[in-house]
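Dear H.,

Thanks for agreeing to be a second pair of eyes. The structure we're designing against is below in token form, covering all 90 positions.
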């Protein structure tokens, strides 16, 4: 297991300790959570870029349009508007 030293202003370190305590974590656990989130976001973005490079622009746009339609239908259904041509705010 690696050990990292992080230098930061004392007031920021104190606030991080308070944040960790509020969540019932050690500062180490707090940083491990943040590192996991950051690495996961990086991996997802890298996979997205790799897939986008191999994919079809037209198929991607068609998929987004279909997802938008499904989302609009789901929102309308949640407001009981599935049989009407109006949005929830009309």
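And this is the sequence the design step returned. I haven't edited it by hand at all.
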């Amino acid at each position: 297991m690696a050990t990292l030293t992080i230098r930061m202003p004392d007031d920021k370190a104190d606030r991080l300790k308070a944040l960790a305590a509020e969540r019932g974590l050690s500062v180490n656990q707090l940083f491990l959570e943040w590192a996991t989130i950051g690495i996961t976001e990086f991996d997802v973005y890298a996979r997205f870029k790799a897939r986008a490079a191999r994919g079809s622009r037209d198929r991607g746009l068609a998929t987004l349009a279909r997802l938008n339609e499904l989302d609009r239908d789901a929102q309308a259904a949640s407001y009981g508007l599935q049989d009407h041509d109006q949005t929830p705010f009309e």
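Two observations from my side: The CA atoms of residues 34 and 40 lie 10 Å apart. The longest helix spans residues 27-54.

Warmly,
E.
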